[in-house]
Every structure is written in structure tokens, then in C-alpha cells.
Amino acid sequence: MSVALIASTADRRLLDESRGTRVMTWIMAIMLFLTVLAAALGLGTLGAAALLDRQLAGRLTVQIVEPVEAKRLDQAARALAALKSTREVTRATEVTPAKLATLLRPWLGSDAADPDLPIPAMIDVDLRVVDAAAVARVRAAVRQVAPSARIDRHESWMSPVRDFMAMVSWLAGGLVLLMAAATAAVVILAARAGLETHRATIEVLHMLGSTDVQVARLFQRRIALDTLLGGLLGTALALVTVGVIGWQLRALGSDLLAGLALSTRDWIVLGCLPIAFAVLATFAARQAVLGTLGKYL
């Protein structure tokens, strides 16, 4: 009896492998489709979280909330000069009233450009060193010349979003592991069912001198090919789905959602999933068959 990677015609006939597409192939296609979608969600969320961290790291917003316009403008000028002379600051730029009006227009409409509207003066700041001590020194330098200033770290008010992204990434990783465990369980059940179905044939093979390892190779080879074929089909459909979703996200024009785009490394990882699941199925089938043969046959 052959034990090569590709079964001979005689070996395939022994286990009825010539009956066309089996249910196992479609089960694996569904499993890999769901697994790739979950993995794509996790990888995309990780990429978006990393992009968010890079964009927000070391960024501050200084707001001058003095209600008197003359004092507000004077404190803004003093704060801007103090920031530019501070060693920890790499960039300090005052946000123009026109840009502030543009940012407020979605909420205030045409009233955002009203000169009588008391809009705080704002300064965008980038830090050279990102730590609490550097932020404290910058805050002290600004407060010394602008008592009404309020300093906000971008990381602090975006931390709930970052925490949510981390939760989604962990959830997606858990789903991938759960699908891998489910795949192994399905393979074990299929292998044991196959043993029962071909029990008489396997007993004849044993009488002819075949070993448990040779019989196990027949089953693991068949299950591995089913898993790989179904996995490739499910992965292809999932990648098309992910591509369509990514195209829709880019069309929305949102910087945050655009960060969910997958990198080249992510696409390679997704493409390797059917191979990984085929290896997992092969190992699970081998252990299931050898364990069952050792106990009952």
C-alpha cells in the first residue's frame, strides 16, 4: 500500500475518495471564510490603533479660554512665544480663526464665523520627548505667561477609542483561535466517523500487513486535501469580501476608518491561513486515527 503524499488510485478507492466533493470541503470553506474575516478585522484594527498612536504621540492642544478678546490674544501670543522657546517642543502653530470656524461649522453653521462668538485661541503643539515630565514642563511654561490656558493631551481624550480598538483586536484573535479549535474538533469527528465507516476494510488491511501509521496516512492525506481545498475556496471569498469592505471604507474619506486598511504583511498572513489550517487538520487527523486504532482495532 502506498504511503506517498498523493494517494494512488487503489488507495483512494479503498476509502471511497473518488465520490466527488465531500461535505468536509464545504465545512472547511465556511470555517476559513469566517476565520479570515475575523483575522482581517483584528489585523486592520491593530493597524489603525498603531496609526492612531503615531499620530497622537506627543501632540498637545493649548486653549486660551480668556473671555476678554484683547487679553486672550495677548496670552495666546505669549504662550506661542513660550512654546517656541521651550526645548521639549518641536512645533507650535496657532490655529487661525478661519480654521476654527471651519471646524465648528458642522455644529454651529454660519454662526461659527460670527466675530462676536467667544472662541478660545488654540495652539497645536508637537513634543520632542513623550513623557509626563516633558508635558509638565510645557504646562508650567505656558501657565506662567497665560494663566487661563488649558493644555490637553491628544492621547488622553482618544484613549477610550484606543481601548476599544484593543478590545476588538483581542476579540478577533480569540475568534481565530476558537475557529482553529472548532476545525480540529470537526477533523477529529470526521476521522473517527471514517474509521467506523471503513472498519471492515481497515481490518483487512491489517491482516495484509498494513500498520496503523499507514492507515492513518490515508485518512490524514484525505482530510488535509479536503481542508486545503475548502480553505483556499473560503479564503479567496473572504479576501474578496475584505477588499470590497476596504474600498468602501476608503470611499468614506474618514482618516480613522482609513487606518483599518491592511498592509502587505497582513495580506500575506491572511493568505497563509489555509495552509496553517491544513497542517492543523493533518495533525489532528493523525492523532485521532492513531489513538482510535490503538484502542479499538
Automatic annotation (TrEMBL):
Family matches, as Pfam families: FtsX (PF02687)
Boundaries of every ABC3 transporter permease C-terminal domain copy: 175-287
Membrane topology: Multi-pass membrane protein
Annotated GO CC locations: cell division site; plasma membrane
A GO biological process held by the record: cell division
Matches recorded under InterPro entries: ABC3_permease_C (IPR003838), FtsX (IPR004513)
Keywords assigned by UniProt, alphabetized: Cell membrane, Membrane, Transmembrane, Transmembrane helix
Compartments where found: Cell membrane
Keyword Transmembrane helix in annotation: yes
Coiled coil spans: none
Keyword Iron-sulfur recorded: no
Primary subcellular site in the record, as a coarse category: membrane
Transmembrane segments: 23-52, 167-191, 227-247, 267-285
Stored PANTHER family: CELL DIVISION PROTEIN FTSX
Full protein name: Permease
